[in-house]
TrEMBL record:
Protein name: Probable glucitol transport protein GutA
InterPro entries, per the entry: MFS_2 (IPR039672), MFS_trans_sf (IPR036259)
Membrane is among the record's keywords: yes
The organism of origin for this protein: Hespellia stercorisuis DSM 15480
GO molecular function: symporter activity
Length: 482
């Protein structure tokens, strides 16, 4: 195992080779466990917060959507700030792990506060939820950005990075089981113990927050001594200075745009699953957990398949094909209809081709982009590039949730009513099939022009080694990615 090192070690010609190391399987698993927490934090809110606001807290759909969107926008704004702070960190314990540890307790507290129905007027409730959701997403960002950056700073071996990332996503997919299936089960269980619906939601959120925090703590503990001591970024550079540097890099821009569109689709479908199950199919809220469970089980299988396909083929094209499969499937279901809970389970499971394809491969594509940018510019700006990437894709999340809330309100959604108008039914059907289906196909088309292929990336790595050894090299084979 590695030892704790001073983060100020200066890279030499042998720096990359020094840390070109195999990671023990248990270290990879320890690193990946936190992705359970990551998934719980993000997908619990994405799937259930709008529903909690409209059906438990009593907020109007548009107002509830606005709160969720403002929270995600704050999360996006705080990403580059935390990313830059992490890049500049000079702690002897590394640049990333101190931030990860600081997030643990706030995540538990903010989870409970966010899912508490306060006895206030509508304006008071709106202000309360805006404040608590900002607290929630700040706690998350303190963990998320350093954690994602840590994924490329445990080893300089690209195959080991990919392996660790694949294991991380297996845990992330398991996290979907907790974030999407468990909430309604917990709420029902707490209600059976005699709690009111309000208290049941708060306790369910606290339980999930504790599970997320525990997973994050395990990763913090398991990665001790493995963080590579890259030198901190200069504090003389303004936080926004690096934005101009990375946003002129074509592969980075393409990946951001494609990912933003994906999250518009992803958050649209996940946030309307419960609405579709209750309004269109007429089942109770707890039964919607079956839909999430089916998607999670299928997603776990797919996450293993995606890793193998990405190694055998070019991960870019695996990503594209999976987007097309899910996008086409959703459009077909809009035509033939979803008439039973089983049909919705099948529809949501097949949507996981895109969901798992993105979750497994997007950050591998981003890490390749970061490494290629380092070759191009001579600067390793992983924290900055991850945080700005996160910033822009979260705009897609915010837009999706706000649009869902607005569409439901325009259609005439009435919280608490078992029977809704035909306008609401049609709106929900479109939100769970048509709109995300079109967006996923557009996402796939955009990634088609992403220039970093497996062949070009390997050629760049060979040139990188030759450059470090002071030998002549050519960029002809990978000029398009520079």
């Amino acid at each position: 195992m590695g030892n704790e090192k001073d983060c100020k070690e200066v890279p030499t010609e042998n720096f990359s080779k020094k840390y070109d190391r195999k990671l023990p399987f248990f270290t990879k698993c320890g690193f990946g466990v936190a992705n359970i927490g990551d998934t719980i934090i993000t997908e619990f809110v994405g799937a259930f917060l709008l529903f909690f606001f409209t059906n438990v807290a009593g907020l109007r759909p548009a107002l509830g959507g606005l709160v969720v969107s403002l929270g995600i926008l704050w999360d996006a704004v705080s990403d580059p700030i935390i990313g830059t702070m992490s890049d500049r960190c000079t702690s002897k314990h590394g640049r990333r792990r101190p931030f990860i540890m600081l997030s643990v307790i706030p995540i538990i507290i903010s989870s409970v506060l966010l899912f508490t129905n306060v006895n206030l007027p509508m304006t008071g409730k709106f202000i309360y939820y805006v404040i608590t959701i900002i607290f929630y997403w700040t706690s998350y960002t303190m963990f998320n950005i350093p954690y994602l950056s840590l994924g490329s700073e445990l080893t300089t071996n690209n195959d080991e990075k990919t392996s660790a990332s694949s294991i991380r996503q297996v845990f992330g997919t398991c996290g979907l089981l907790f974030s999407s299936t468990l909430p309604m089960i917990l709420v029902s269980a707490y209600e059976k113990f005699g709690m009111t619906t309000n208290h049941a939601w708060s306790c369910a959120a606290g339980t999930l927050g504790f599970m997320a925090a525990l997973a994050i703590f395990i990763t913090w503990y398991s990665t001790r001594g493995w963080e590579i001591p890259f030198p901190p970024q200069s504090k003389s550079d303004p936080i926004l200075k690096n934005l101009g540097k990375v946003l002129v890099y074509k592969p980075y821009i393409i990946l951001i745009v494609g990912s933003l569109i994906f999250y518009c689709a992803f958050n649209t479908i996940t946030s309307t699953v419960v609405y579709h199950a209750t309004i269109v199919l007429g089942v109770d809220e707890a039964a919607s957990s079956i839909v999430f469970l089916s998607g999670t089980i299928f997603g776990i299988i797919l996450s293993i398949l995606v890793g193998k396909l990405a190694i055998r083929f070019d991960k870019k094209w695996v990503f594209v094909v999976f987007m097309f499969i899910s996008g086409t499937t959703l459009l077909v279901f809009r035509v033939v209809g979803i008439h039973s809970l089983v049909a919705q389970c099948i529809e949501y499971s097949l949507a996981h081709f895109a969901i798992i394809g993105f979750l497994v491969l997007s950050y591998n594509l981003l890490y390749d982009t970061c490494e290629t940018y380092e070759f191009r510019s001579g600067k390793m700006l992983t924290g900055v590039m991850v945080s700005y990437f996160s910033f822009f894709v979260k705009l897609g999340k915010a837009a999706a949730i706000q649009i869902v809330g607005i569409i439901l309100e325009i259609a005439g959604y009435q919280a608490g009513q078992t029977v809704q108008s035909e306008n609401v039914v049609v709106a929900v059907k479109n939100l769970v099939t048509l709109f995300p289906g079109i967006l996923l196909i557009v996402c796939g088309l955009i990634i088609c022009i992403f220039p970093i292929t497996k062949k070009r990336f390997l050629a760049m790595q060979e040139a990188k080694e030759l450059r470090k050894e002071g030998k002549e090299y050519s960029t002809d084979a990978f000029q398009k990615i520079l």
